[in-house]
Design brief:
single chain, about 80 residues, mainly alpha, 3 helices, about 75% helix, globular
Length: about 80
C-alpha cells in the first residue's frame, strides 16, 4: 500500500516541535525545574570544547533533524 505523505508539512511540524521542546526545556531550566538538555548533549558531542554558540547551533540543528525524521516516520505509518 502506497501512502501519500505531505513531506513539507511533516518536516515543518517536526522542526517546529523540536524548537518548541527546546524552548520548553530552557523555560523549565530558568524556572528551576531539572530538565535533560538534549541540545547540549548533541552539541557537545560534535563540538566538545567549542564556544557556547557553536555547540548550541549544532545541537539545535541535530535536534531539529531528529524531529523531522520522527515526524516523517510518524506521517508515513
Amino acid at each position: 500500500m502506497l501512502r501519500v505523505v505531505a513531506l513539507r508539512k511533516a518536516a515543518v511540524a517536526g522542526g517546529a516541535g523540536a524548537f518548541l521542546w527546546e524552548a520548553a526545556a530552557r523555560g523549565g531550566g530558568v524556572a528551576g525545574i531539572d530538565t535533560f538538555d538534549i541540545v547540549r548533549s548533541l552539541g557537545t558531542l560534535a563540538i566538545p570544547d567549542g564556544p557556547d554558540a557553536a555547540w548550541w547551533a549544532v545541537g539545535v540543528a541535530a535536534h531539529a533533524l531528529v524531529g523531522i525524521c520522527w515526524a516523517l516516520f510518524y506521517a508515513y505509518f
